[in-house]
Amino acid sequence: MEASAARRHVVITGAAGALGRAIASRFAAEGARLALVDRSLQHLQSVFAHPEPEHGGTLLHAADVTSDTAMAPVAAAILDAFGSVDVLVHVAGGFEMGEPTHALSRESWTRMMDLNAWSFVAVTGHFIPAMKFRQHGKVVAVTARAASSGAATMGAYTASKSALQRLVESLSHEVRGSGINVNSIAPSILDTPANRQAMASADPARWVSTGAAARAVAFLASEGAEAMHGQHLVLDGLS
Known about the structure:
Layout: E1 9-13, H1 18-29, E2 33-38, H2 41-47, E3 59-62, H3 68-82, E4 87-90, H4 106-124, H5 128-134, E5 137-142, H6 155-175, E6 180-187, E7 190-191, H7 193-198, E8 208-209, H8 210-220, E9 232-235
Parallel strand pairs: 1-2, 1-4, 2-3, 4-5, 5-6, 6-9, 7-8
Helix pairs in contact: 1-8, 4-6
C-alpha cells in the first residue's frame, strides 16, 4: 500500500457493474475514500449495501454520464464532500453488436459514441479543473483492445472505443504539464456474468478477470505509473 493511499479520494463511474465493483473493492482495500457513480441509485445501494464507515463513508450518486447537465451537480457534490479528487476511473460504457457497416443506423452510432466516447468528455470536464488547480491527479479510462481495428457488425462499437482512446491521448497532451496522468486499460474480453451468459460456449479461463483489470487500473493510478501519459495498457488474457 502506498503511504498516501489512505488519504486518496477516488471517483469511479459505472461502479455497479462487474468491473466497477472490482475496482471499487481494490481501492477500498487500499484505504481510499470512494465516490461511486452509476445510472441507478437503487442498484448502487443494493451492490454497495455496506460501505466502509472507517474510511469516512462511501458516496453513492446516480447520474447519466453522457449528460454534462446530469454530471454537473454530482461532481459538485463529490468535490464539496471530498475537497479534492485524486483518481478518476471512468468505467462506464457499453457494448452491442450492430448492423453491418453499410446498414448502420444513426441510433446505434449515436448510442455507442455517447456511451463510450462523449461520456469521457462529460465526466472529465467536471474534475479536471480541480486536478489542475492542485497540479495533481490520475485519470484512468476503460477502452478496449478492439479499439485497434474494426470487426464485422461491430463498427459503431470499435469506432467509439477508438474515439475514446484518441480522447484519452488528447487530454493527456493537454494536462500532463499540470501533473495529471491520463491513461487507459484496454482489455480483450472481460470475465463477467454478462459475457459468460452471452458466450456460453466460450472458455472464460482465456478471458481477463475483473480482478486483473482492477489491479491494472490501480497501477495506472499509482506513483509507479507517473511517467506514463496517454498510454493504453492492453490486457490480452489468453484470447
